[in-house]
Write a structure and sequence with these properties.
Helices cover 50% and strands 6% of the residues. It is mainly alpha-helical. It folds into 2 domains: 2-91, Rna Polymerase Sigma Factor, Chain: A (Orthogonal Bundle), CATH 1.10.1740.110; 109-173, no CATH class. Strands 1-2 form a two-stranded parallel sheet. The longest helix is centred in the N-terminal third of the chain and has 15 residues, at 24-38. The mean pLDDT is 82.
Length: 178
């Protein structure tokens, strides 16, 4: 749907537009779609459900919130760049050409983090990756879920907990200096 919003915008012109111009409405709509995907259902309900409280909450606040996110995104992002990133994410397959580690290659340690409520890469996705890594002989340190309910955006909205998790993993991965 995000791609369709961009390429259907009358100002897309097949991707041939002047810098700073182009499908601004389509790009803003694409960001709104993405934003709804990246926030968990629990977080959307907390912010915009019927019981939400505060000046920028409740069902009537979601449209202005999404408009704001779309407008903010258009100021700093280009539609063709966004389309390329969407293509790269869709084509990325970390196991497309599996290569088992050999004695000449160090076996990496891998940290997999699942973000509760993540509709893009949920717990099942991480468990699947851990299984494939194990089949390849790669140890995956896997914390099934974070304590957040924010979904995919928790990686940027609740960074301190993830930063600590990454720091601990990196500290364990780096050999002590002599």
């Amino acid at each position: 749907m995000a791609r369709h919003a961009i390429v259907s915008d009358a100002r897309f012109h097949g991707g041939d537009y002047d810098p700073g111009e182009g499908p601004r409405a389509g790009l803003a709509t694409a960001r709104m779609i993405g934003h709804l995907t990246y926030l968990s259902e629990v977080e959307l309900e907390r912010r915009f459900g019927h019981d939400a409280r505060g000046p920028r909450s409740g069902p009537s606040a979601i449209a202005p919130y999404l408009d704001h996110q779309g407008t903010k995104f258009v100021r700093r992002f280009d539609a063709n760049s966004y389309l390329r990133l969407l293509d790269a994410m869709d084509r990325f397959d970390p196991f497309g050409r599996p290569v088992a580690p050999t004695p000449t290659h160090a076996v990496p340690r891998v940290l997999l983090v699942s973000l509760r409520g993540d509709r893009r890469f949920g717990r099942e996705h991480s468990a699947h990756m851990a299984s494939l890594l194990s089949w390849l002989g790669v140890r995956a340190v896997h914390h099934h879920e974070t304590g957040t309910e924010l979904g995919h955006d928790a990686a940027i909205l609740e960074l301190p907990g993830l930063t600590t998790l990454l720091a601990d993993f990196l500290r364990e991965s780096v050999p002590a200096a002599d």
